[in-house]
Amino acid sequence: MKLATFKAWVEAADTSGMFKSSFRNRRCIIFFEWTGDKRDKTPPDFSAADGELMAFAGLWDSWKDRETGKTVTSCTIIVREADAWSAKYHDRMPCMLHSRDFDGWLDGRAERDLLMQPPRELREWIVSKRVNVSGYV
């Protein structure tokens, strides 16, 4: 059985059996989400319109692949209902963190209410596909 779990809904991320342990103990920050056709994905970057660094709130976990026996480390972006600006991309939007909130998110001090704050005005720009090339220098 394969599960599609790349997105964790903010409304249940801290209580869902699949995500609650990661919400308490394994938080991360994600900077890119790929969009477009699976064969030609584009990595847009969303940031504050005023240029402040922002990122997506995420969760990570490690698990053992039953077929190969290898440990797999994976992550998920926490999403919420889309605002008017991001609705052109999807009906859900990533929970955005301001740079001032990175430490509180990562060390667990920040609770779900941080993720529910209205996002600032956003902008999009496309970054190079090389951000996904392992070992690229």
Describe the protein.
The protein has three helices and eight strands. The chain has 137 residues and is mainly beta. The protein has a single domain (7-119), classed as hypothetical protein yedk fold, CATH 3.90.1680.10. The strands form two sheets. Strands 1, 2, 4, 5, 6 and 7 form a six-stranded mixed sheet that branches. Strands 3-8 form a two-stranded antiparallel ribbon. The longest helix is centred in the first third of the chain and has 6 residues, at 20-25. It starts with 6 loop residues before the first strand and ends in an 11-residue tail after the last strand.
Characterize this entry briefly.
The chain has 3 helices and 8 strands; from the N terminus they run E-H-E-E-E-E-E-E-H-H-E. It is mainly β.
Q: How many domains is the backbone divided into?
A: 1
DSSP helix fraction:
10-25%
What's the pLDDT, averaged over the residues? Answer: 81
> How far apart, in Å, are the first and last alpha carbons?
37 Å
- Estimate the global geometry from the Cα principal axes: globular
Annotated CATH topology: hypothetical protein yedk fold
